[in-house]
Design brief:
The protein is α/β, with parallel strands linked by helices. Helix content is 25%, strand content 27%. Helix 9 packs across helix 15.
Length: 611
């Protein structure tokens, strides 16, 4: 069809498709009306007025033929033309951007790298550049984190460590200011891997009538890759604490696969762990390790290269962790002598060298037994009376003590301790805790991860040895529940824990809270209630442990078993792990990378498309 149109009209159909039909000579409306009037008179005198009869079908056929002839003559007199837009050579600019990131080093068919394909397209001697150079003024760019002018393909090195497509487009627009820009051509193997909004930038270019054309390089069918996308790890840890790092791994082109994830501290390998991953999706795995010493350490996390993997350059990530040798102070206030108080102190005194537990036990009205205080005047009234005194601690444990022991100002200070100070608050179960202690409708109720109510009846104590601790899905990888480096053995250890009692049931957990441990009734397995929960609150965190007798984990297990000590040591370390010092000076970020460096990401090719 295109050849037929070209034979008759000397142009391809695409020319007519883009063209605009018009008339070179347009008569006035008065002349058009006059011609139509004359045509009407002619038809009247020829076909309507004559006396001889003509049948209706013949009459109207003749009328249509003559009217058509007159219309053709009129159109010819008006000189019909087709206005086809064309580019005046060298009158506008075309920007061509070539991806110059490290992922362009990947090889595809016949071991040809993607950067070689881009160099061929960007070559001044190549047909592509020659064709567009005949019509446009060219602006050639290579881009990764930044876009820079280049003379041609040989200037591409594929050394950039990210692909900032938004920044490259903005740079091209900025560089072309003052001269008309016909469009932008992007040569790349994938999309932007920076957090900038590419779709918003494309919408802006569309509104300015600047089209963007993409040329994809690379073969996605052969792309196989295991990418360590990111690692989330704490920025600061207390020496002796275990680090729990969450690694996001993305598999491309692989089915179900085993991967090995290793951790190195300052270049020295300290742990390797194997994981079973599903293919074709991103999954988060958790690796735990203990820093070897205090100080700032750089940790390298790396996925061992898989068989057939296209590249291993995106298999590693780094993080900087400050391992401190501080001695955070934790205040423990309890309202009655009980085994939980004594065994908790014993657990920390036995194995903990960094945490300082300052405890206050109310022995009678107005009388307090203090341990761990720094001076005789500290905590003489039982609990800090000023916010400055309370803020000198990093953590706070509230045992079995009623709400009216505290003044409203002291309860408000506890809320400020978590929200503004960034401290950790832990509430323990007991006969005077939570609802039984009348803490509902107090500032402390806002801090805790459970909803409280203002019931007035006394809580019903459960039968001793009635509940067994059970790990939740989050608890299986939580820092508090780590009884063994092997999480399978750790889960088995929790199954061996002796039963405990729950003085009152707090079943309503807040939406932002996380449940770490549950309690399952030993006589009714369908009855499962919350045991240990946490939530972020302001700058700090809060936790609630509903049992009153974890000391059974010490007394009812063999003497050599240290699960009880381990639990409390890890609980209190976790409680203060995010608490800042009262005075800190430092950079906003732990470390920075050069402006031309970011995380490398190997990607599959884009499809050829026009936006």
């Amino acid at each position: 069809m295109d050849r037929l149109i070209q034979f008759f009209f000397k142009h391809k159909w695409s020319a007519f498709e883009k063209g605009e039909f018009s008339f070179a000579g347009r008569p006035s409306w008065l002349l058009v009306i006059l011609i139509l009037a004359l045509a009407g008179l002619l038809i009247y005198f020829l076909y309507i007025r004559p006396g001889y009869r003509i049948n209706s079908s013949s009459k109207w056929t003749l009328v249509a033929l003559r009217a058509s002839l007159l219309a053709v003559l009129l159109i010819m007199i008006m000189r019909p033309v087709l206005v086809v837009p064309s580019v005046i050579p060298k009158s506008t600019t075309l920007a061509i951007l070539a991806d110059d990131s490290q992922s362009m080093k990947l090889a595809d068919e016949n071991n040809r790298t993607r950067i070689d394909a881009a160099k061929e397209l960007m070559s001044r001697e190549g047909q592509f550049i020659k064709d567009v150079d005949s019509k446009f003024r060219l602006s050639l760019y290579g881009f990764s984190t930044l876009a820079a002018r280049i003379n041609g393909g040989p200037d591409l090195k594929a050394q950039g460590e990210s692909t900032d497509l938004v920044g490259a487009l903005q740079e091209a627009i900025k560089d072309s200011s003052g001269s008309p820009l016909s469009g932008i051509v992007v040569i790349s193997d994938g999309g932007s891997n920076t957090p900038k909004d590419l779709s918003a930038e494309l919408r802006d270019l569309k509104s300015r009538n600047i089209p963007v054309y993409t040329i994809g390089v690379g073969n996605p069918a052969r792309f196989k890759d295991a990418e360590l996308v990111r690692v989330t790890a704490p920025r600061r840890m207390l020496v002796g604490s275990a680090v729990s790092a969450d690694a996001l791994v993305r598999l491309s082109g692989f089915g179900a696969t085993k991967i090995n994830l290793s951790v190195a501290e300052d270049g020295k390998a300290i742990k390797t762990q194997q994981y079973d991953l599903k293919g074709g999706e991103s999954q988060t795995v958790t690796i735990e390790f203990t820093p070897t010493s205090a100080g700032a350490h750089r940790y390298t996390y790396e996925v061992t290269q898989l068989d057939g993997e296209t590249t291993s350059e995106n298999n590693a990530q780094e993080s900087l962790i400050e391992v401190t040798n501080d001695k955070p102070r934790v205040l423990f206030i309890d309202g009655e002598p009980r085994w939980e108080y004594g065994k908790l102190r014993f657990s920390l005194a036995k194995n903990e060298k960094n945490l300082v537990l300052v405890s206050v036990l109310r022995s009678a009205d107005g009388k307090f037994y203090r341990q761990g205080v720094e001076s005789g005047g500290e905590l003489t009234t039982g609990f800090p009376t000023t916010v400055e005194e309370l803020f000198s601690y990093q953590g706070l444990i509230i045992g079995s003590i009623e709400a009216n022991f505290f003044s409203y100002e002291q309860l408000k200070n506890i809320e400020q301790f978590a929200s503004k100070r960034g401290g950790g608050v832990l509430a323990l179960g007991g006969s005077r805790s939570f609802d039984a202690g009348k803490f509902a409708n107090t500032p402390l109720a806002e801090v805790l991860p459970f909803y409280l109510n203002d019931r007035i009846e006394e809580p019903e104590m459960q039968v001793v040895s009635n509940f067994k601790p059970v790990l939740t899905s989050r608890g299986r990888t939580h820092a508090i529940t780590r009884m063994n480096e092997d999480r399978a053995l750790s889960a088995k250890a929790w199954e061996e824990m002796p039963p405990i009692s729950i003085p009152e049931t707090l079943s309503q957990i807040k939406p932002g809270a996380t449940l770490i441990l549950e309690a399952r009734n030993t006589t009714d397995s369908n009855r499962v209630i919350p045991l240990l929960a946490e939530q972020r609150y302001g700058r700090g965190r809060s936790m609630a442990l509903t049992t009153s007798d974890t000391w059974r984990w010490r007394m009812e297990l063999p003497s050599q078993n240290n699960y009880h000590e381990t639990f409390w040591r890890q609980t209190l370390r976790y409680l203060v792990s995010t608490t800042p010092n009262q005075l800190e000076v430092g950079a906003e970020k732990m470390y920075t990378v050069p402006a031309t460096s970011s995380s490398f990401a190997a990607r599959s090719t884009t499809r050829n498309s026009t936006r």
